[in-house]
Amino acid sequence: MKYLKNLNNHNAYEAFIIGSDFATIQSEQRAVVSYCRTEEHIHYNPYVPIPLIANLYDVLYSDANGNLSFTSEVLPVSEGKTPIAICVTEAGFFGTNEPARWMSLKYMCCNTPDSGTLTPSSGYMMWGNNGLDISTIDDITTIYNGGSSDGYLTASWSNTTSNKIPSLYDSNDKWNLSELGTKNTYAVTDVDGKNKTEKILTITTTQATWQTDTTITNSQGQRYSPAACCCWRYNTLGTQQGDWYLPACGEMSVIVVNKTDINNKLAAINTEYSNDCINRLENAHFLTSTEINSGTIFRILADDGRVGPRGKYDNSTVIALMQY
User: Residue 130 in contact with residue 312, Cβ under 8 Å?
Assistant: First the structure.
């Protein structure tokens, strides 16, 4: 049986516990209780593994056998673990039973869909499905405080009052649907990128062998979906094809709003792991899986936080998310 150690520091280390160590485990009861998100009515049982709860900006690692673990620390290379993702929203952030979201440490790329790329310009791609309208599936409109085109994620980024998107968070730093409007009305309330990516892929693709070909065809044509396909194909040590997806507009919004903190963690990882992952989120147009109509989708500009239409035929940057 495996048990968590060092719980006071919220580290995700594990050790095998034998009979002589039960007294030590029992002495850690207070730490275990405080670590758990629900603190009332917990009956401590040293024989039951403690569930792991990811914190914002934790790093997800894989060992040589593909076993996943996470911690807030940037572990040294000598630990023998490979960083594969950063936690960008904790479990429950988007609502009850919503899992944590983890951001890829690579940009997606049509030329290397399985492994991604460190260079955003190498990963530019089209959304695809131009002329094929699946907005009835997504049902997301583009309305921001009376505006009808671009909106801005924060007041400081907004250059006009009418296009300012209301505060994304409430006083408890939770996703604030009450200010954003009815779910499935505002683009930034769309947090279902995983389901949307799967629906996009059911319409894909004219390139029938996209799951096995060396490359993904970067086309705007109907039944081509390079962005969604590249996210599906992407995999790392400890993850497989189909684990990753194209973020929805709301999921990408949180990443852009917290870009500075995410970039700080990316820089720390790169310092330790010799530029094996992207060193920062570029100020680029990021595609989302949220469609507007047959010719346009929502994209987010990381530089000034603009959210608005982008043609499916325009090349933009893509990162992938995973739920874990």
Answer: yes
Determine the Cα–Cα distance for residues 258 and 244; give it in Å rounded to an integer. 21
Report the half-sphere exposure of 216 (CA within 13 A, side-chain side): 32
Task: Give the residue extent of every domain in the chain.
Answer: 1-53, 105-323
Q: Of the candidates 257, 282, 258, 277, which has an alpha carbon nearest to the alpha carbon of residue 267?
A: 277
Extended strands (E) in 1-159: 2-5, 13-16, 59-62, 68-71, 82-89, 101-107, 151-152
- Asked if residue 133 lies in contact with residue 118, where contact means CB atoms within 8 angstroms, the answer is no
Asked if residue 201 lies in contact with residue 176, where contact means CB atoms within 8 angstroms, the answer is no
Cβ neighbours of 80 (radius 10 Å)? 10
Give 104-147 pLDDT, tens digit per residue: 999 999 999 999 999 988 889 999 999 987 765 565 665 554 45
- Report whether pLDDT(23) > 50: no
pLDDT tens-digit profile of 232-275? Answer: 999 999 999 999 999 998 899 889 989 999 999 999 999 999 88
Global pTM reads: 0.81
- CA separation (Å) from 246 to 207, 243, 294? 19, 11, 18
Q: What share of the chain is helix, strand, coil (3-state, %, to 5)?
A: 25, 20, 55
